[in-house]
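Protocol step 4 of 5: obtain the predicted structure for the target chain.
Materials: sequence only (see below). No template structures provided, no constraints applied. The aim of this step is simply to have a reference model before the mutagenesis design in step 5. Sequence pasted as it appears in the construct record:
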Amino acid sequence: MNRALTALDKRILNRLQQDIPFTAEPWKKIAGELNIQEARLLNRIAILKKRGIIRRIAAVFNPRKVGFVSTLAAAKVAPENIEAAARAVNKYPEVTHNYKRQEEYNLWFALVAPSRKKITLIINRLKKNKKFKKVIELPAVRLFKIDVSLKV
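Step 4 output (C-alpha cells):
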C-alpha cells in the first residue's frame, strides 16, 4: 500500500489538529475552509483512518480541570520479560502511553486516573508483579506544556 500523503491529505491532517468547530455541521465548515466538498473531506478522513494515519477523532479534556491526576512511571524489566510487562501495564485503561526504552529503566508509561489513590493502587499492583524488578513514580512538579500539533 502506498503510504504517501497527497497535498490534500496533508491539509486535512493539519486542519484536524486544530479545534473542531462547535457547530451543527462541523465537517461542512472544515470542508469550506479547505475549499472542498464535505463528502470529499469525510471520504479522505475515512481513508486516512483505514490506513491508520488517523487513529481517532475525539475530544481531549484537561484531566486536572475535571479533578483527575496523572503521573509518569518507569520500570526496570528484564529483557526477556519486557513484552509480558508491557501487557501487564496495558491492562489498565488509565495507562495513556507505554514505551520501551534502551535504559536501565526500560519501560516508561503515563497514567491518568480519577484519584491519587487509584494511581497508587495501580503502581503498587505492578510492583508486586514478578515481571518487574522495580517501578518508580515520577509525578510532575510543574506542567510546562501538554500539547502537540505536527506540521504535516
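Step 4 remarks: The mean pLDDT is 93. The longest strand covers residues 69-77.
Proceed to step 5.
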